[in-house]
Specification:
alpha/beta; D-Maltodextrin-Binding Protein, domain 2; two-stranded antiparallel sheet; three-stranded parallel β-sheet
Length: 159
Amino acid sequence: MLMKPVTLAAALLLATSGMAYAENVELRFSWWGGNNRHQATLQAIKAFEQQYPNIKVQAEYSGWEGYLSRFTTQIAGGQEPDVIQTNWNCLPIFSKDGNGFYDLRKVAKTLDLTQYDSQSLASVSVAGKLNGIPVAATARSFYYNQKLWQEMGVAYPNS
């Protein structure tokens, strides 16, 4: 199973370095999100297709609910999209040895990786192969039910 790059940005950059010269190319691009993300991504696809009229991008989008199940089924059937959005923690599931996704370091001359720090790139690498491009980093927050902690007789964390 060899999938292509996992972000729209990667697809856009790669297209300018070779795909743009192909006759007619169709790429399937899959992502999840809310309506605002869908509309913004569809606009980006439209702008991309205007710049590269020989490349047609088939949009496959949904909310988060069911996205991973659908993607897993597509991979199992060998019908996965060419470009996908996935979480960093899914990479080792679908690319146990780093070969499940395209190694984006192979296109480092086209895809400017210098804008990413090594820690960010390591988070989307498997077995030394760059399987994705980090597009965002968020902090995890914990919410505690203080009443439940009191009922359990456990000290509530202060920091």
